[in-house]
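Intended use. Records like the one below are meant for learning the mapping from a protein sequence to its folded structure. Do not use them to infer anything beyond what is encoded.
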Amino acid sequence: MLQLYFFPMACSLSSRIALLEAGIEARYHLAHIWTKRLVDDGSDFRDVSPKGAVPVLVLENGERLTESAAVLQYIADAKPEARLAPRPGDIDRYRLQEWLSFVGAEIHKAFLFPTFWYKDDGSLAKPRARIMQTLSVPAAHLAGREFLVGNAFTVADAHLTWTLLLLRPAGIDITQWPPLAAYLERMQARPAVKAAIATEMALRKTVAA
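Structure written out for the chain above:
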């Protein structure tokens, strides 16, 4: 059975969404990203991953994957009939990788990461100015489209959904981009997405930041 190390409402939420969308059973381990301890037994999370960051996906053979883009693509390929990623050789396969890279680098690391990790002493002015232009890219892409890639939900949608959820507590109102607001509403209506968010919001209340 796959095992996912996660922290509630962190980027590992996209991996939980993908697992639920794929119908893949997994064992979940809550890793506190601030204290670097596993909640179950208090052991050092860095023994699982020296990076001390989620997600970490432990495969059935014991190997471990880190970084959302890699974890999400593995989950998609583990259940190809769920169509969470286009098949190898399909140009949309590379579109998927394109969006995973964009979301990870331009929204997550460029804006959400510094916003939630650093004090706003003026150093966040540039990321905040840049995010406005950054969000116009998926907004324009999603105008008249239901999903990021092709005509079906993919792991790229799972990743973008997570970032959009965190934009409001980061001080960004996505209603400025109607296509993004409508997209997030559609994604949150999906049973797997709704279940994943509900589970992690409940757990979030039990974990001190």
